[in-house]
Amino acid sequence: MKFRGKIIDIACLNHFTRVVTTISKLTKMCVLRLTPDNLFFVLSGKVANGGVSMWCELSQANFFDEYQMEGVSSEDNEICLEVTPENLSRALKTVQNAKAVKVKLTKKHCPCLTIAAELPTLSSVSRVVTHDVPVDVIPRRLWHEFKEPSMPDFDVSIYLPPLKTMKNIVDRMKNLSNFLVIEANLNGEMNLKIETDLVSVTTHFRDLGNPPWGDDASQDGGPSQSRDPESMVEARVDIRRLQQFLVGQQVNPSKAMCNIVHQSVLHLILLHEDMSLQYFIPAVA
Amino acid sequence: MPLSTQSQGDDEQYVLVANLDNARNLSNILKAITFKDHAIFTATTNGLKVTVEDSKCLQANAFIQAEIFQEFTIREDLVAFQINLTVLLDCLNIFGGTTTPGKIHKNKRIKKKLHLRWDSTCFLSVFCDAAGVSTALRMCYKGYGYPLTLFLEEGGVVTVCKINTQEPEEPIDFEFCSTNVTNKVILQSESLKEAFSELDMTSEVLQITMSPSQPYFRLSTFGNAGNAHYDYSKDSDMMELFKCTETQTNRYKMSLLKPSTKALALSCKVSVRTDNRGFLSLQYLVRNDDGQICFVEYYCCPDEEVEEN
Q: What stretch or stretches form a coiled coil here (chain B) (predicted)?
């Protein structure tokens, strides 16, 4: 198993650091999958994290100037590592003004992702910084847990309102209730609702637009074809999970949308220039 | 604006309808009296009074006159209910946004945001902050047993809140009347703000001495580190009015008066009055975002009376 990558472009380094920081806000630990073309940050839905799962995909060519990897074997040409993204993020933040940053899979006292960079100083001699971030290698027999999630058979797909607006509202709603109902229809309307003994609050978003999955859905004869555009589908979720997702978003994505499987799953999709992020929050009764 | 397009028919079922273009003109002043969860709302044709009490010894009132509202319609002589103030504030601030009004703060926000983002959408958001997007409010109440309904709108997004109300308790009448006032001063808040922010919190009481002779107006604390006195001379620039007829020294529980610091922070002037029983009345003149005047007052019972020789 070998991995070596080098980032030279300062904007790429900045983006990569931002992606890792976003991931670190979403989860304490996750799996990093390395393939010849891509990097994936994966969280599989387990009871421990409230059934939430995440799939973040980056194309290595968008970030790395040099990228070499040799997987576990030639048939299974990939590497699966369990990482604590916050450690990676912290290390990357310290090397933001380096000319080049190398990321390597190494073995110190345990397997590590080593981040090494030369930093400029006031004198003529550069300062070399090395961070060894411990990781756990995930054996092949467990790889099936970290596969790309399939697109759920959603009832409604809708573009999200500005994330900042959503975050402000969800932050306040969290003071009032533990659970939130998100409902949407094919008319571009979405409501966020909470209801307790003390108070009920509903926020109405209009004219959000529905992503044009149309053709695919109609081929499958999917439910969206016959759905009345006014009728709402909903998912009741733990408000902290939604808030956690929103807190992590530091940059406006090019596209933000969600798919709702009625009373089952809330599937959030963010598309940025250089990465895509999917987040699944299960509905609770 | 969507809120004002509600049909006349709807309005007839409400005993109270109040509209504000800027919800902060209500939420900011309510923050000055939020030290307990529950508040009593009393509405008359004059406007709205919100009362919060603590252990029967302290009462805070916020007055928002009918003129502050863009619309204020009341169909009964008196409308009163009790409501959870913390929940109400969360609803009024549902769109987040700043808690403090004023130009200076807006400039600060612009500066912060320019660092973070640099794509075309962020330029728009910076522009919006500069323009000061505010939340519009429509508050409706159908009467006894019904929830208080709030319609809040910002940037085309509407939030509807229904907050349960309870039977209002009768607010305490401290029987504080101007005829029994022995001492009165009006100060510019600036001067008191400093003192209040430095008050020794290890002192159980705040002692107020008012006198026609030295030290005129003195705030004292008795804490672990020692005693501290803040003196304000009657000739001071900060002293707008000084009418003291007799020397009085009274002590008030620090824990009761501490919340009044929030009202002081918002105000530009404060009047301090004591009556012949040593009861304290603090009245704060607060200017809202639009420069309109509202009042907040605190009444406090004395802790013990100290005889002055």
A: none
Q: What percent of chain B clears pLDDT 70, i.e. is strictly above it?
A: 83
Count of CB atoms within 10 A of residue A244's CB?
Answer: 19
Cross-chain residue pair A172–B97, CB shorter than 8 Å: no
Domain A154-213+228-253: CATH superfamily, name plus number: DNA Polymerase III, subunit A, domain 2 (3.10.150.10)
pLDDT digits (tens, 9 = 90+) for A219-278: 344 455 567 888 999 999 999 999 999 987 877 788 999 999 999 999 999 998 888 999
Nearest Cβ partner of B96 from A172, A204, A252? A172
Q: Would you kindly state where each structural domain of chain A is located, as residue ranges?
A: 1-143, 154-213+228-253
Domain A1-143, CATH: 3.70.10.10
What is the value of pTM for the model shown? 0.84
What digits encode the pLDDT tens for the residues B50-106? 999 998 899 999 999 999 999 999 999 999 999 999 999 999 999 986 543 333 333
Residue B121 pLDDT: 35
Q: What is the pLDDT of residues A137-184, one digit of tens each?
A: 999 999 988 988 888 889 999 999 999 999 999 999 999 999 999 999
Phi, psi of B282 (to 5 degrees): -115, 125
* Rounded distance between C-alpha atoms, residue B228 and residue B161, angstroms: 47
Q: Chain B interface, mutation test: which of A21, A189, A199, most B Cβ atoms within 10 Å?
A: A199
A242 touches A192 (CB < 8 A): no
How confident is the model over B95-146, as pLDDT tens digits? 986 543 333 333 333 333 333 333 333 333 333 343 457 899 999 999 999 9
Quick check: B96 and A176 CB within 8 A?
Answer: no
Q: Which fold has domain B13-98+135-166?
A: Proliferating Cell Nuclear Antigen (3.70.10)
CATH 3.40.50.920 given to domain B181-300: no
- Give the count of alpha carbons within 13 A of A120, CB side only: 6
Distance between B89 CA and the closest CA of chain A, angstroms? 10
End-to-end alpha-carbon separation of chain B, Å?
65
| Partner residue facing A199 (CB), from B93, B97, B161 | B161
The answer for residues whose C-beta is within 8 angstroms of residue A248's C-beta and 6 or more apart is A22, A23, A25, A26
